[in-house]
Specification:
globular; alpha/beta
């Protein structure tokens, strides 16, 4: 059983405005919310309410992506009624705003939330209602958009892609596929990606997390992804020689040259075995080599984390300061699926002034 060490957050990290591109709605619930709704709907939980948060973290510290994914059985089970989706979405925004996040794209798979009788559209409407309520509660300190996810082991990706396009002016900014990579390549969903291209829509693909370079190559060269969900295994195409000089392979050079954003999730990568430690995490070298690096939470409940915790760990492990925090925040905002003028407004009016005060 692993032991999660508390990470005190410095004033620098606390004050730094944060931008989040890779956060799962069903992976960020408050443990108390899971317990309360589970009691109402009669879903059995694997631990007592007071120990539930620790159970999720410990279960996910296995080094296996498959076991990590299995824990979602308990969060998805409490997100089947309309009122529960609204609540979870609202609390998500409130928690992110409290953590200093100024812009977030939160992804979730509508097809997994229909057991209570909701339609796909009703589920999206419920999450949107919750997001707007959370933004209002935060007093305008945060902007949040939905990314609609299709499960890569299912066959509804075209349907979910059409849903994302239908709602793109109503709070949905993009599309994603997620789930176990091995055995389920992104090319199984080419019809959905070709449709999104025709509709001038944005999408990211989970790739290069548990699986290696072929997953990244297919996501980019076959499917045309705008961003890589994780993408941490791009490090496999970089060789550092005895003098410390890095040599990029063709795929790594392409990713860097094209400024393809990497949605890196340090704690999650450690849990699933995609990286051995924070000190050895590829994010350090990738940042030095000027890849389009972003820092993300992935699943705040399963990782017992927040954006502040992710950033503080990088400050402690890699010696990051205000300059690096500014870099990843601006990288993320540049890479978001918001319209250009809205992205620019947040960079110029929120990020740059705040980081100037922090000395970056």
């Amino acid at each position: 059983m692993s032991e999660r060490v508390d990470v005190p957050v410095s004033d620098l990290v606390r004050r730094a405005p944060k931008v989040l591109l890779h956060d799962h709605l069903d992976g960020g619930l408050r443990p108390a919310t899971v317990a309360e709704i589970a009691a109402e709907v009669g879903h059995p939980l694997p631990a007592a309410p007071e120990a539930l948060g620790d159970w999720f973290v410990e279960a996910c510290d296995s080094g296996s992506l498959e076991r990590y994914i299995a824990t979602f059985e308990h969060t998805i089970a409490v997100m089947q009624r309309r009122e529960d989706l609204v609540r979870v979405a609202r609390e998500c925004v409130e928690d992110l705003a409290e953590d200093g996040v100024v812009y977030a794209e939160v992804r979730w798979a509508p097809e997994q939330h229909l057991a209570g009788g909701l339609s796909l559209e009703e589920a999206v409407d419920a999450v949107q209602e919750g997001f707007r309520a959370g933004e209002r509660a935060a007093g305008g300190r945060i902007v949040v958009r939905q990314i609609l996810t299709a499960m890569r082991h299912q066959a509804r990706s075209r349907e979910i892609a059409e849903l994302a396009v239908r709602y793109r002016d109503e709070g949905v900014c993009g599309f994603d596929i997620a789930g176990a990579e091995a055995g389920y390549p992104p090319t199984r969903h080419l019809d959905a990606f070709e449709y999104l291209h025709r509709e001038n829509a944005h999408f990211t693909i989970h790739a290069g997390e548990a699986f290696g370079l072929p997953s990244i190559w297919e996501a980019l060269q076959w499917c045309g992804a705008d961003r890589l969900g994780h993408g941490v295994r791009i490090i496999d195409d970089i060789e550092v020689d005895g003098s410390g000089r890095a040599h990029l392979g063709r795929l790594a050079a392409y990713v860097r040259d094209k400024r393809i954003p990497l949605e890196l999730c340090p704690t999650s990568n450690l849990q699933t075995g995609a990286a051995p430690s924070l000190v050895e995490h590829p994010i350090g070298l990738l940042t030095e080599l000027r890849f389009r690096v972003t820092v993300n939470t992935d699943n705040r409940l399963m990782s017992g984390t927040s954006m502040s915790r992710e950033l503080q760990q990088l400050v402690d492990a890699l010696g990051w300061g205000a300059r690096e925090l500014r870099l990843v925040a601006v990288n993320a905002m540049k890479s978001s699926f918001l319209p250009f003028d809205e992205r620019l407004a947040i960079i110029e009016q929120v990020l740059k002034p705040a980081y100037a005060e922090l000395g970056a």
